[in-house]
Specification:
Blueprint lengths: L1 H10 L5 H12 L7 E2 H10 L4 H13 L3 E6 L2 E6 L1 H14 L10 E5 L10 E4 L2 E4 L11 E5 L6 H7 L2 H22 L6 H19 L16 H14 L8
Antiparallel strand pairs: 1-3, 2-3, 4-6, 4-7, 5-6
Helix pairs in contact: 1-7, 1-8, 2-4, 2-8, 3-8, 7-8, 7-9, 8-9
């Protein structure tokens, strides 16, 4: 049953090795002092169907980018997050692991010239963006207006939650529901399998969640299932304990 759950997650969406390792380190190696050995890393990624050579190439890139650090004791290599990567993972983790969707109904509207630069936020019209938080520093050439919309027209909701994103959420809900059903019939789960399942769940969740602003449900179109996916992710991660081999 665990194998069926793993296979479903492996088949769901792209598994770019570099991106998967970012998810792995962010979830399993999530403190400044935590390390994972090369052997355990290969064991977990092998369960995801990732070849050792691809892992080695991705590790080299992550070291070069300053995302991870490595230490070698004898013939054993251990890997952990760099200081800057830890800080970035901590910031992203607050949203990724939040137990519920943001409830605040306010937002910030950023208005710039039609042919001006783009800014962080979801573009809803030419030169107009909506963001969950005030940009800091304020982007030059933009008018930043805080407020709480009285009513959101459907075209704004469609811009904040476009059809492709909504479809991707529905697909994720389907695979997470399947995984939850499979694990409900499972007893104790091997540590490496638990780790692989966790990482794949976090990876797929992270990749879709960070594609849109952290806004309350009222900002998104009817049928938006982001909150349902979050509930499934929270329950699955509670079921799948972090392995003791990442210490």
């Amino acid at each position: 049953m665990t194998n069926e759950a793993l296979q479903a997650l492996r088949r769901h969406g792209d598994l770019g090795v570099w991106s998967v390792l970012v998810s792995l380190f962010g979830d399993l190696v999530c403190t400044r002092d935590t390390r994972i050995s090369g052997a355990n890393l290969m064991r977990v990624t092998g369960l995801m169907g990732i070849k050792p050579q691809a892992v080695r190439v991705a590790l080299h890139r992550l070291r070069k980018d300053g995302w991870i650090v490595s230490e070698k004791t004898g013939r054993t290599s251990e890997y952990g997050l760099s200081g800057s990567a830890y800080a970035e993972s901590l910031t992203a983790g607050r949203r990724i692991y939040a137990r519920e969707t943001v409830r605040e109904t306010g937002c910030f509207m950023l208005i710039g010239e039609a042919n001006g630069a783009s800014v962080d936020g979801m573009r809803v019209a030419t030169g107009v963006y909506i963001a969950a938080r005030a940009p800091c520093p304020s982007p030059p050439g933009f008018l930043v207006i805080p407020g709480e919309p009285v009513e959101l027209p459907d075209w704004v909701k469609a811009a904040l939650g476009p059809a492709k994103l909504a479809q991707d959420y529905q697909a994720l809900r389907q695979v997470l529901t399947f995984v939850a059903e499979e694990l409900a019939r499972e007893g104790a789960i091997d540590a490496a399998e638990s780790a692989a399942l966790r990482v794949l769940i976090v990876h797929h969740w992270r990749r879709i969640l960070l594609r849109h602003e952290d806004l309350a449900a009222q900002f998104f179109p009817a049928g938006w299932c982001g909150e349902e996916c979050r509930i499934l992710v929270v329950k699955l991660l509670e079921r799948l304990e972090k392995p003791a081999f990442a210490t």
